[in-house]
Design goal:
This protein has about 200 residues and is α/β, with parallel strands linked by helices. Helices cover about 25% and strands about 30% of the residues. It has helices at about 35-45, 60, 65-70, 85, 90-95, 165-175, 195-200, and strands at about 1-10, 15-20, 25-30, 50-55, 75-80, 110, 115-120, 120-125, 135-140, 145, 150, 155, 185, 195.
């Protein structure tokens, strides 16, 4: 599996492209903006992006979704509990003085334990409410794409609508920290980390 990282948007979001080596089928995780880096990489790898997987519905992770869907011919996937955030995207963009967006439309919904199969990749959905009610992480082999649930030395904020620190703590302690220590964590912002590192050094949880 090939993993490519892109950084986009005013909040420096991480976007990840996962490509199956054999079939070249791919997914994009989160959708801050349509950039030439993404489209050029997809073209150069000969990738066929089947899905855009959203970790949650906050504006900075979805405001490029419509453009990316059109450019890549991909279907959008989210947990239903975050549709309310997605539908209210412009209430958040106005808070951050960002131009308004058309609320996205989704083709598929996922819940805890679901498997999204793309090529030879089996992508497991882990629901992790707390940062948002419908937040999810995606586990592929020994790689966890954690959105804004877990960061290196930090966790997602819970002061926005739908946030709940007790739920976030439970999601991390009782779901993510039950995973193998060697699993690499690719967050929605900032540098990658590992489950083992966060269990040992993350003082917030």
């Amino acid at each position: 599996m090939i993993i490519k990282q892109f950084i986009a948007g005013p909040l420096e979001n991480n976007i990840y492209l996962l490509v199956d080596d054999d079939t070249k089928q791919a997914v994009l995780i989160d959708a801050t903006a349509l950039t030439s880096d993404i489209t050029d990489t997809v073209k150069n790898l000969g990738a066929d992006v089947k899905y855009i997987l959203l970790t949650h519905g906050h504006f900075d992770h979805i405001m490029g979704l419509n453009d990316l869907k059109n450019a890549l011919g991909a279907q959008a996937v989210i947990n239903k509990n975050d549709l309310v955030l997605s539908d209210k995207i412009n209430e958040f963009t106005r808070m951050f003085n960002i131009p308004e967006s058309t609320p996205p439309v989704y083709e598929r919904y996922v819940d805890d334990g679901d498997i999204v199969t793309v090529g030879n990749m089996n992508i497991k959905v882990i629901t992790t409410p707390g940062h948002t009610e419908g937040g999810v992480c995606y586990l592929v082999d020994d790689n966890l794409f954690s959105g804004d649930t877990l960061f290196r030395d930090s966790v997602g904020r819970t002061d926005l609508w739908g946030g709940n620190f007790e739920k976030l703590s439970d999601s991390i302690k009782n779901k993510l920290f039950k995973l193998d220590d060697n699993i690499k964590v690719f967050p929605g912002h900032g540098p990658m980390t590992t489950i083992g590192y966060e269990k040992k050094y993350n003082e917030i949880i």
